[in-house]
C-alpha cells in the first residue's frame, strides 16, 4: 500500500519537526489498521490541514482519501493516532463521503465500532464520545427503537447535538451497542465485526 501524505498550505504551517511527527503517526496508524482489518487499497491519500480549533478533526472522504485537521498550536499525539485508526475503520466499512443514505442503526454501528477499535488500539486516548450513562440509555434507546431503520434520520440531531439531543449522542449509543456485543461474545475481534451487516450486529448485541 502506498501512503501519500500532503500538507495543505495555510496561514501558519507546522514546523518541520511537527510535520515529521505527524507523518510518522499517520503512516504508522494507516499501515497498522490496513494489516489488522485487511484493507487492500493500493493507495491511501491523507491531506493534513493546520487549523485554529482545539480538536483533531478526521473525515474519510473516499475509500482512498482521508482529511485530518490538526490544531496548529499543538496537539496530542495519542489523539491524532486515535483519529487515524477511527477514520481507517470507516474506510474499511465503506463509510465515506456524504453520498450514501444509510439507516440510523448502520450509522450507530459504524461510529460505535470505529470508536471502540480506536480505543483498543490507542487506549491512552479515551474520547469523550465513548462514554455513556445508564440515564442516557434509558432516555434515548426508545427513540432509537422507533427510528433505527430510517435512512432519512437527522445526522445533526443524532450525532452533533441538534434539537434537544445531547452532543455526540449517536457515538455514545454506538459504543454501548458494541460493548453489548463484546459482553455476549467476549472473544470477538473488531476484525470479525467490521464486515457484518447492521442487522447481524443488532442480533449479536441482543438489546
Ligand atoms: Zn467517525
How many beta-strand segments? 4
Indicate the mean pLDDT. 96
Distance between the termini: 39 Å
> How large a portion of the residues is in β-strands, by DSSP E?
5-15%
* Count of helical stretches: 8
Could you tell me the radius of gyration in angstroms?
Answer: 17 Å
| Oligomer state of the chains in this structure | single chain
- SSE order in H/E notation? EHEEEHHHHHHH
Detail the poorly predicted runs.
none
* Structural category: alpha/beta
Topology of this protein?
Blueprint: E1 2-7, H1 16-37, E2 43-51, E3 57-62, E4 65-71, H2 77-93, H3 104-121, H4 134-147, H5 155-160, H6 169-184, H7 190-193, H8 198-205
The structure holds zinc ion.
The site of zinc ion has 4 residues, from helix 2 and helix 3.
In words, what does this structure look like?
Strands 1-2-4-3 form a four-stranded mixed beta sheet, with helices on one face. It is built from eight helices and four strands, in the order βαβββααααααα. The chain has helices at residues 16-37, 77-93, 104-121, 134-147, 155-160, 169-184, 190-193, 198-205, and strands spanning 2-7, 43-51, 57-62, 65-71. The longest helix is centred in the N-terminal third of the chain and has 22 residues, at 16-37. Helix 1 (16-37) runs parallel beside helix 2, helix 3 packs across helix 6 (169-184) and helix 6 crosses helix 8 (198-205). The mean pLDDT is 96. A hairpin with a 2-residue loop joins strand 3 (57-62) and strand 4 (65-71). It folds into two domains: 2-93, Zincin-like, CATH 3.30.2010; 104-205, no CATH class. With 207 residues, the protein is an alpha/beta fold. Helix content is 51%, strand content 14%. The termini are far apart. Bound molecules: zinc ion. Residues 86, 90, 111, 114 line the site of zinc ion (ZN). Residues 86, 90, 111, 114 line the site of zinc ion.
Amino acid at each position: 500500500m502506498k501512503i501519500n501524505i500532503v500538507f495543505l498550505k495555510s496561514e501558519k504551517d507546522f514546523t518541520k519537526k511537527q510535520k515529521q511527527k505527524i507523518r510518522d503517526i499517520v503512516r504508522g496508524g494507516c499501515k497498522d489498521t490496513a494489516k489488522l482489518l485487511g484493507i487492500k487499497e493500493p493507495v491511501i491519500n491523507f491531506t493534513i490541514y493546520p487549523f485554529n480549533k482545539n480538536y483533531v478533526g478526521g473525515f474519510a472522504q473516499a475509500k482512498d482519501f482521508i482529511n485530518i485537521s490538526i490544531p496548529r498550536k499543538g496537539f496530542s499525539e495519542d489523539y491524532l493516532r486515535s483519529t487515524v485508526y477511527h477514520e481507517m475503520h470507516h474506510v474499511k466499512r465503506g463509510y465515506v463521503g456524504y453520498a450514501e443514505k444509510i439507516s440510523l442503526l448502520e450509522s450507530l454501528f459504524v461510529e460505535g465500532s470505529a470508536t471502540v477499535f480506536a480505543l483498543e488500539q490507542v487506549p491512552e486516548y479515551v474520547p469523550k464520545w465513548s462514554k455513556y450513562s445508564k440515564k442516557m440509555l434509558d432516555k434515548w434507546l426508545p427513540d432509537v427503537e422507533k427510528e433505527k431503520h430510517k435512512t432519512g434520520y437527522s445526522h445533526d440531531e443524532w450525532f452533533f447535538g441538534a434539537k434537544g439531543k445531547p452532543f455526540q449522542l449517536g457515538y455514545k449509543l454506538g459504543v454501548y451497542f458494541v460493548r453489548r456485543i463484546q459482553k455476549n461474545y467476549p472473544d470477538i475481534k473488531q476484525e470479525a465485526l467490521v464486515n457484518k451487516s447492521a442487522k447481524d450486529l443488532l442480533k449479536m448485541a441482543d438489546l
